[in-house]
Amino acid sequence: MISKQLNKLTIILGSASPRRKELLSAIGLEFSIQTTNQKEGYPTNLKDHEIAEFLAKQKAKFLSENLSKIDLLITADTIVSFKGELLNKPKNKEQAFNTLSKLSGNTHKVITGVCLKNHKKEIAFSAITLVTFKQLTKKEINFYINNFNPFDKAGAYGIQDWIGKIGIKSIEGSYSNVVGLPTTEVYQHLKSFF
Questions:
Q1: Which end of the chain, N or C, is surrounded by fewer C-beta atoms within 10 Å?
Q2: What is the pTM of this model?
């Protein structure tokens, strides 16, 4: 049910994330992938959703120099916020353990900022999902860190992984947003982009 205008476009996903690739494919889009190695950053005065949207727009800026008239670029950035603190991708096992210990027994926010951009228009939006973990044991946290890959994920976990299946008590909002792309919102914004 993608519009005729969208079918005439070359869609580019500006992300190396295999999860975003799967989610975008699942809503019926054909696309190519482009990535950038440019260093990301954001002003320190921004709040949760503003940070996610800023980073998505920044990625779009890095990748949009050579956009043709038939290109539509989709970029996204997912952040995890707990009590106002951003929980980035952990650099080592110790950081991963500390992050998951903070999330254990608590509720946090997962926010994905998305940017849609073509040669003459850009829109940015975000989705927020509240995720509540049960109380995790040290053994469960260590098992997850040692057997899965928390290092490429904001908040040190993937909801689709083992820890999501045994540790998440509830979610309020979009599940796909926590995986990395709020597909319902992306689909709606794509339909109204033109």
A1: N
A2: 0.93
Joined tokens for residue 125? 């939006």
Active centre residues (catalytic): 77
* Nearest residue to 79 via CA among 116, 105, 104, 42: 42
- Coil, helix or strand at residue 92: coil
User: Which domains are assigned to the chain?
Assistant: 4-191 (3.90.950.10)
Q: 112-123: string of b/e by CB count within 10 Å (b at 16+)?
A: bbbbbbbeeeee
DSSP string, 115-184: EEE-SS-EEEEEEEEEEEE-PPPHHHHHHHHHHS-GGGSGGG--TTSHHHHHHEEEEES-HHHHHT--HH
Q: What amino acid is encoded at 96 in this protein?
A: A
What is the torsional sign of CA 107, 161, 180, 186?
Answer: negative
CB 23 within 8 A of CB 183: yes
| Axis-axis angle for helices 93-103, 138-147 (nearest 10) | 130
User: Could you tell me the two tokens for 192?
Assistant: 């109204």
